[in-house]
């Protein structure tokens, strides 16, 4: 996918992202950095420390040091970042003149103290930023990242940080464990779709129950007699067994029917589920009868509507597991570049 902004946000709160520590958050809390909703501003809204900002803001440095102020973000989805957005929305006289971002890959559940001692490497070098702007930075790395460190030089405020990239699941969690082949967490993603007018299709591959209508995938109303569709690249080649499709919150705009096709490694299209009716605002589960491995599926929506969540459970093939192991090893064993 050429436009990295369409890749999942690995740091998003709804995907499990969290800001685990910051050296200072005097004016505004660090947790705001990964809030799912866009930043908002309410002028003349004050607390005991000043104007309330929807972001992370540190105090002004008075000791003459160059900084930086920093915040540690645990990614909800470990993976390889392709681009990072540092959004300074509504910060106009108090944004940092420069930022830099580092990444590291640490297994398990490290503490903030352990992270500070980790082997960090540069994702975004010290770079100028503008106020009240979505500052975008392309990232070139082959390393699997679990945490990022956002640095403000020397201080200031940032509204949001988005880390767009591709998930790299740990193969140890796919054996004898129910495995959702389509989940963003596992490396699934929407490779193409007919329409995402009201909300993007990757939404339906998120964790948990859909929170509201815009938290799923919704298309515009079709007037041409055709149907909508989304092609999902699976975490790895597998034999799908169970499809779950949830239309929660879609009451007057749920699809009438869906069907599911699969693509084999050589591009052959096979039917996995014939057209079936859906109910509005309801979860659905369908068994799939196939022994043919696929690495992509196409969800066909008749004629249009909204899908809150899509899950696809199945068995990874030996070839699929080998590909996961190869990618995991390749992204966790890259030699450290000397900074």
Automatic annotation (TrEMBL):
Q: What keywords appear on the UniProt entry?
A: Hydrolase, Purine metabolism
Give the superkingdom in one word.
Answer: Bacteria
Q: Which GO terms describe its molecular function?
A: allantoicase activity
Enzyme class, broadest EC rank? hydrolase
Ranges where the Allantoicase domain occurs: 16-167, 187-316
Q: In which pathway does it act?
A: Nitrogen metabolism; (S)-allantoin degradation; (S)-ureidoglycolate from allantoate (aminidohydrolase route): step 1/1
**Any idea of its EC number?**
3.5.3.4
Q: Which Pfam families match?
A: Allantoicase
| Catalytic activity annotation | allantoate + H2O = (S)-ureidoglycolate + urea
Q: Which family does it belong to?
A: Belongs to the allantoicase family.
Q: Under what name is this protein listed?
A: Probable allantoicase
């Amino acid at each position: 996918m050429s436009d990295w902004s369409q890749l999942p946000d690995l740091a998003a709160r709804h995907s499990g992202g969290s800001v685990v520590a910051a050296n200072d958050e005097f004016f505004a809390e660090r947790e705001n950095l990964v809030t799912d909703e866009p930043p908002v501003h309410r002028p003349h809204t004050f607390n005991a420390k000043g104007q309330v900002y929807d972001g992370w803001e540190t105090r002004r440095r008075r000791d003459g040091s160059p900084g930086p102020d920093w915040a540690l973000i645990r990614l909800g989805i470990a993976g390889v970042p392709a681009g990072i957005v540092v959004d300074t929305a509504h910060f106009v006289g108090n944004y940092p003149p420069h930022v830099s971002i580092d990444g590291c890959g640490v297994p398990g559940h490290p503490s903030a103290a352990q992270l500070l001692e980790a082997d960090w490497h540069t994702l975004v070098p010290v770079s100028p930023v503008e106020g009240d702007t979505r500052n975008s930075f392309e990232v070139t790395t082959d390393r699997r990242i679990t945490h990022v460190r956002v640095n403000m030089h020397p201080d200031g405020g940032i509204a949001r940080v988005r880390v767009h990239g591709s998930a790299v699941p740990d193969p140890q969690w796919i054996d004898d464990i129910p495995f959702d082949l389509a989940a963003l967490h596992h490396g699934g993603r929407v490779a193409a779709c007919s329409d995402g007018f009201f909300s993007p299709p990757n939404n339906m591959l998120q964790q948990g129950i859909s929170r509201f209508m815009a938290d799923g995938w919704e298309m515009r109303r079709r007037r041409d007699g055709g149907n909508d569709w989304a092609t999902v690249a699976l975490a790895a080649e597998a034999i799908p067994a169970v499809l779950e499709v949830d239309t929660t919150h879609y009451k007057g705009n749920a699809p009438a029917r869906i069907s599911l096709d699969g693509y084999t490694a050589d591009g052959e299209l096979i039917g996995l589920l014939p057209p079936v009716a859906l109910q509005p605002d309801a979860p659905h589960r369908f068994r799939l009868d196939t022994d043919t491995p696929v690495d992509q599926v196409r969800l066909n929506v008749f004629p249009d509507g909204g899908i809150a969540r899509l899950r696809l459970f199945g068995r990874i093939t030996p070839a699929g597991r080998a590909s996961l192991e190869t990618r995991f090893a390749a992204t966790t064993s890259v030699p450290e570049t000397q900074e």
